[in-house]
Amino acid sequence: MTEVIASATAADAADFASIDREQWLHMYEQMSKIRAFEENANELYLSRKMPGLTHLYIGEEAVAVGVCEALRRDDYITSTHRGHGHCVAKGAKLDRMFAELLGKEAGYCRGKGGSMHIADQETGNLGANAIVGGSSGIATGAALSIKLRNSDQVAVCFFGDGAMGQGLFYEVANMAQLWQLPVIYVCENNQYGEYTRQQEAGAGTLVGRAQAFGIHAIEVDGQDIRQVFLTMRELVERARRGEGPAFLVCNTYRFMGHHVGDVNREYYRSKAEETYWRTERDPLQQLAGWMVEQGLAEAELFDQIDTSVRNEVTAAVEFALNAPYPALEEVDQHVYA
Amino acid sequence: MSTPNTNGSSTTGQNSGQNSRIITFGEAIKEAIAEEMRRDSRVFIIGEDVAEAGTPFKVLLGLVDEFGKHRVIDSPISEAGVAGIGVGAAITGMRPIVDIMFGDFTTLTMDQMVNQAAKTHYMSGGKLKVPMVLRTTMGATRRSAAQHSQSLHVWLSHIPGLKVVVPATPYDAKGLWKTAIRDDNPIAIFEDKMMYTLKGPVPEGDYTIPFGVADIKRVGTDITLVGTSSMVHIALEAAEKLAELGISAEVVDPRTTVPLDKQALIESAKKTSRAIVIDEGYEQYGATAEIASVIADGAFYYLDAPVKRMGAMNVPIPFSPVLEDLTVPTAEKVIEMAKTLCGRV
């Protein structure tokens, strides 16, 4: 297991108490939505109703929600091939997301992008990216644009530990720090780049990569949404004040395989390891457990939220299944603006 | 014929109007960029040594003085990074010009151009736009060897979603540049570095040249010479000498490889019944192949000879001048081929 380093600025109990109950509940609901969305996406794939392939975010929900909860609607994110969670967390509608996954015209990209390319400019989502690390330039460019326009937005770049093997990041992180751009690089260290352990693919530390440029870098337990959110809130305020970029490593775990077809995984990670994360480190259970323990909510409330979310997701799936495909004339539309 | 300028009886597009001056290709480019930067505060330039240095070719000299370092941004030597930053800035409301010093270095930007810039509009179902211009160079014979001499415009011409501009004259450069900056798509402009000092008439003030409209640089009846970028001048030189031999050559300049003015190419070949396509990219799988196939397909029943093509020799470009000169199309080679096609050998 990756050691979770509690950062100097990581939130303590007093900080947690400063957030009101409704906001924690909202974060739980968002995580629950992602969980239910992904379980349904998996089911759609397994029942052959969904074409292509998809990469599920189950287990990593606290990262997307904790990060996006600290953002405004007009802040930008760039996302990854494992991007449904980011999309939901930034405020996308589930019915249009499912429609996109099924290649339907009602989808966010008229069915032309699919699971790995959902973009929703209304919520500031500049798009998921199926080139690993491919969006770090886009996020940094968005941050330069923010600075040139004298806006107080911020740009967030989500990427995984695997993306740290890509050179583009180092080029743009260098410029972000040189020019003090309002970009926050969020490294979701789910510990595996596809089927290879992070330690086998990366020398040194993840935060060290950013620290080499003098970028403010911090590492948190990505299963603990309280830490992710409060740390992110600080980094966002910092960026809005013009104090430059930051690098946030969230240590997390994908409960499922690399993609929906990655079912037999024992050659690269043990069942015991998976069981540990599922039972001991589930981000939804962690938040719910803490709220119950603090007397902020009864356990039944979370069941009610889950049920209500599941109903919403079921309706969204139905919508997508019944939605029409794009007209064939669409095939060569939108090649050029 | 489809020629956009109306300031003269010739169809070459190069006639000077009342408000024209003779300026260089490089000056025309800078003038276009400066005028567009005055016109639209969203336009900015980013790249290696674009500010005080004005690039090694000095084309952008002085822009930083007028527009400041926040709009003429010196970047580290990070081609992929600046291309990616360009894409992100373009998606979020700016209109960046990304300067890549040598066309050979565009290889470093390929993921950003091919997988990001070119596909963003389509993948987003038409919601996101990438109005950026990638500015770079092409052209050999500068004795710069294999990594500073290539003409790689066809790499980007292969990718749907990108437009590719190859201006041949100062007049075209200014008008095409303005169109590029105002276009809502990712554009790549390849400037032949050997043409920066080439002089020609350029109107003062605003005019644009639409993409996908070829220009007939010289009217002829016996053979069509299609040339791109500096090969237009090779074709014109050949045409001049062919005229002395009694062969009337028409010189067609597509000006943009994407979109390609297929109709103009086909119409010219139908008229002359013979065609040679000349482009400085490598001959194998080159722009010449695409253009020749357009002509062969569209003018087949009118042709008296196979469509021939001349590109750069399929070798890494050598340093030694005696070797390098062998690798590029020349007027002499064009003349020889034209004479053969016209049965004059």
Structural class of the helix and strand makeup of chain A? Answer: alpha/beta
**CATH homolog superfamily of the largest domain in chain B:** Thiamin diphosphate (ThDP)-binding fold, Pyr/PP domains
The CATH architecture of the largest domain in chain B can be named as 3-Layer(aba) Sandwich
The total beta strand count of chain B reads: 14
Into which percentage range does the β-strand content of chain B fall? 15-25%
Number of domains of chain A: 1
Give the overall form of chain B. globular
Unreliable residue runs of chain A: 1-9
CATH superfamily of chain A: Thiamin diphosphate (ThDP)-binding fold, Pyr/PP domains
The radius of gyration of chain A is 19 Å
Give the oligomeric state: heterodimer
**Strands in their spatial order, largest beta sheet of chain B:** 3-2-4-5-7-6-12
Q: How big a fraction of the residues of chain A is strand? A: 5-15%
Biggest β-sheet strands, sense, barrel of chain A: 5 strands, parallel
Please give the CATH class of chain A: Alpha Beta
Q: Helical segment tally of chain A?
A: 13
CATH topology of chain A: Rossmann fold
Question: Share of helix among residues of chain B?
Answer: 25-40%
Question: Briefly, what is this?
Answer:
Chain A is an alpha/beta fold and 337 residues long.
